Amino acid sequence: MAILNQEALAKQFWQEGYLVLSGYFNKELMDQYNRIILDHFGDDPAYAHDEHFLNKSQTEVIPWFPQQQGMDTFDTVEKDAGLKQLSEAIMGEGWYSLYCMAMFSRKGSKGQAWHQDCVPSKSGIYNLNRLVYTHDISEASGGQLIVVPGSHRRGELTVGKVNEDFSDQRVLAPNKGDLVLIHGHCWHRVAPVEGTYRVSINYRSAAQHTPKDVTDVCVYRNMRYRFSTNSVVEERC
Ligand SMILES: O=C(O)CCC(=O)C(=O)O
Ligand SMILES: [Fe+2]
């Protein structure tokens, strides 16, 4: 789809640290993705992370990387011309796709605690989340996405209660087909899941010269965690 006002949207993204484009992707494509993801996970999927991580991070989500299994139907979003242009308007020339990660959460699971997807030690080293929603999220379903506007400029997430409410937080309830972009340094979390399940897909990307493993270490309010070694690399208290 064409996006006419890319420059204005990129500017808004850099002010807020996130951006919402309602109804960007067509609902048939979203239904197809949702079906494939539910088929993959089945009724009772096992967690991919160990118990210690699940408890300490208060993050109950199961990732799947469909493109790594040759499911090229997930390339449709990746190849969308408007999304590519907007990505370039935000990250500049030479940006690249990191990976496509589908995320599943069961009914009654905790969502995700406050985090930054990567360590904000340098402002120019970050990932860009390009999130696509395959079903409606509402107050009834839970699983809302909560962000702190402008927090991508505030440095490291503060230490504190892992799910505390911030007075300046914004609660987003994306609908099927919505596209949400989030800067990897922006403080964000996912509310507990009340509906039968929650699915989202993240087409992560990064600016030129960003290391490919930029999202290996994630910052929570109580720790820094390295996914490649499944280990806490820093306790925060
Ligand atoms: O699923 C969401 O709405 C957000 C997930 C998230 O925090 C991420 O992919 O980095
Ligand atoms: Fe995240």
Structure write-up:
The protein is of the alpha+beta class. It has a single domain (6-235), classed as q2cbj1_9rhob like domain (Jelly Rolls, Sandwich). The chain has 5 helices and 13 strands. It has a 7-stranded antiparallel β-sheet, with no helix packed on it. Strand 12 and strand 13 (231-235) form a beta hairpin. The radius of gyration is 17 Å and the shape is globular. The model has no long low-confidence stretch (mean pLDDT 95). The site of fe (ii) ion (FE2) has 3 residues, from loops.
Salient structural properties:
single chain; 237 residues; alpha+beta; Jelly Rolls; 7-stranded antiparallel sheet; 5 helices; binds 2-oxoglutaric acid; binds fe (ii) ion
**CATH class descriptor:** Mainly Beta
Q: Could you tell me which ligands this complex binds, including any ions or cofactors?
A: 2-oxoglutaric acid, fe (ii) ion
Write out the strand line-up for the largest beta sheet, numbering strands in chain order. Answer: 7-6-9-4-11-12-13
Counted beta strands: 13
Element order: H for helix, E for strand: HEHHEHHEEEEEEEEEEE
- Helix count, DSSP H or I runs of 4 or more residues: 5
Radius of gyration, in Å, reads: 17 Å
Structural domains: how many: 1
- CATH fold label: Jelly Rolls
> Which structural class do you get from the secondary structure elements?
alpha+beta
Low-confidence stretches: none
- What percent of the residues sit in helical stretches (DSSP H or I)? 10-25%
How much of the sequence is in beta strands? 25-35%
Q: Give a short account of the largest sheet.
A: 7 strands, antiparallel
**Per the principal axes of the C-alpha atoms, what is the gross shape?**
globular
> Any idea what the CATH superfamily is called?
q2cbj1_9rhob like domain
